[in-house]
User: What shape does this take?
Amino acid sequence: MGGAYEELSQTGQLGSETFELLRRLVHQVRRSSGFPPPEGYAEWSDDAAYDVITAMLTREGAGQRFVTSCFVQAADEASLERLFLASIKNFLIDEAKKTPRGKLRRRIARLMGADASFCRMPGSPPRWMLSEHPEGAVWQGDPDDLVAEAWRVRGVGITRWNHSGPTPAQTVHALMVILTQVLRHARGAVREEDLAKVLESRFELLAPARSSSLFADEEALAEPGEASTVTEADAAAAGGGAADIWQRLTANERQLLPYLDEGAHHAAQLLEVGLAQAEAVLAGLKAKLWLALSDDSDRTAVMGALLRRCADPPPEPPV
Assistant: This one.
């Protein structure tokens, strides 16, 4: 057969020619637009492309109808390719928006779009540059260089990362400092996807949430699906115990509280101190918690109340 258009014209079915065209177009779209590979793949491959095609063909409410829809609108092989390309790109955009990195991209795009210091370059894939850079300048270097430059910036960190609602002011400041320095280093427009990867690496934004195992034991861990038996009185008692402990913690100890399972290197980076000092603060915090919670009948609830305090905004200073 002469191609996918002829195959669909003669058989009305998705055959090898059409499937091969879709595979090639998935690779074309992902190369030109920088889409991440589908879930379960570290990088793009033919298998990853096949998974994308399968997902498009089996998705609820559309499925294989997208092939028929594109075919009836096409007049020849070239127009069929253009219609397939648009469908694939729209599908990958929808899929990317569902991922944590896709959400991060949308967040930084909103922040940069509201700041006159940044400028979005027309075209696709979306790229951002500093307004001070010459129009049309495009960075084409190694993304690892941008990550390394981000790690050279000292004095910024993120201790609160909300997955919905307005971004906290301190978090906005940290993101913008890194974005500004990275774009200044690049001296041109950088793909939005690469900027998200830089922030992901610098702040470990997309790492899974961690919970402290300092006092975890078989009795403290509920079985999956077990109903909670915490009463309002229990919660109030836990909150009161947490408040007493919180008052005895230093500012550095409070900052490290959500990261008890991390090592001293992470603590040193977060506190911006030497390794020896970070080790001392971390060891002191664990010892202080152990002593404070050793006699508590509901250590898990108290620890949870403490961790919730870490997510609360600091109190307003007195006027």
User: Anything to note?
Assistant: The first strand starts at residue 118 and ends at 121. The longest helix spans residues 77-98.
